[in-house]
């Protein structure tokens, strides 16, 4: 898409089968590498294609392809991780294949060699406390909903945040150290409260509890604004209730390049978008308006005082 003239320039037809086949599964995440190649994330593989749709490689990260790590029986890697911009590293969660045990931490994988390093952290496992499950007759979870985890590369760092707690983890590649920062907001809650049932038995009950949970604070991802050495983050929280209706408030928070919280304020008409990026000093947020692609553009004036 040409974002200056707001025109679609080209579409790429993907192939399910054949030499350029990427399969017919559920692709729910994309990533573009700095060389222009596109990564299509499926639940069991990641297909890398060029700008014309030609298949470059299928990436599979599992016990058969990974080296340098002693696997336990139910260890697995979450396929929905993040590649470094040059495509040389892949970072993701080290999880339990049946989601019956807590996540063990963060995995760093050298894509070419398959060598993996695991970093123990509770950055992911502590989010299990907020999970809502629907339990089948056999006592196992047949459906569950957890918190969103946001991961991205930031220069010499890899940053991890989530939707439930006002915090950020960042791994420093130079010092081989994982750091943790918690923040204090004066405008929203700083973490979710578990005031809802965590186990349900029917789809109707599951949806009801989910709506109850979503009345609480929800943190979005940190979106970098490189030219200003800033990160933006939107947060939504309950402002008040009128009868059975919830009135929400939206807060925009700024962080500096060292992940220090420097400013927060209430804002109106916040774009509800999971896809955001900066262009020409403005935040572009993707929205679907009656099946028409659109962007809401947001610009902030930041005082240096």
From TrEMBL:
Pfam families: DUF4221 (PF13970). It comes from the Bacteria. This is Uncharacterized protein.
């Amino acid at each position: 898409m040409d974002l200056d003239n707001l025109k679609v320039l080209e579409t790429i037809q993907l192939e399910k089968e054949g030499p350029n086949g990427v399969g017919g599964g559920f692709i729910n995440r994309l990533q573009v590498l700095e060389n222009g190649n596109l990564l299509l994330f499926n639940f069991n593989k990641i297909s890398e294609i060029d700008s014309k749709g030609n298949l470059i490689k299928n990436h599979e990260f599992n016990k058969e392809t990974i080296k340098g790590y002693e696997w336990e029986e139910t260890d697995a890697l979450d396929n929905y991780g993040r590649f470094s911009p040059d495509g040389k590293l892949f970072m993701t969660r080290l999880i339990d294949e049946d989601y019956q045990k807590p996540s063990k931490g963060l995995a760093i994988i050298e894509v070419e060699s398959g060598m993996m390093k695991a970093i123990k952290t509770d950055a992911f496992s502590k989010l299990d406390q907020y999970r809502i499950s629907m339990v089948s007759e056999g006592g196992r979870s047949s459906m569950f909903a957890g918190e969103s985890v946001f991961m991205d590369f930031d220069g010499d760092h890899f940053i991890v945040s989530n939707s439930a707690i006002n915090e950020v983890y960042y791994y420093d590649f130079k010092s081989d150290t994982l750091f943790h920062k918690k923040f204090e907001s004066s405008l929203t809650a700083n973490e979710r409260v578990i005031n809802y049932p965590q186990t349900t038995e029917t789809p109707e009950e599951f949806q009801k509890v989910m709506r109850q949970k979503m009345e609480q604070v929800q943190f979005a991802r940190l979106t970098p604004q490189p030219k200003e050495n800033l990160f933006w983050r939107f947060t939504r929280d309950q402002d008040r209730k009128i009868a059975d209706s919830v009135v929400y408030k939206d807060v925009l928070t700024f962080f500096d390049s060292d992940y220090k919280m420097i400013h927060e304020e209430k804002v109106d008409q916040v774009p509800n978008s999971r896809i955001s990026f900066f262009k020409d000093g403005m935040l572009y947020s993707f929205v679907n308006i009656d099946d028409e692609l659109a962007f809401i553009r947001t610009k902030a004036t930041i005082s240096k005082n």
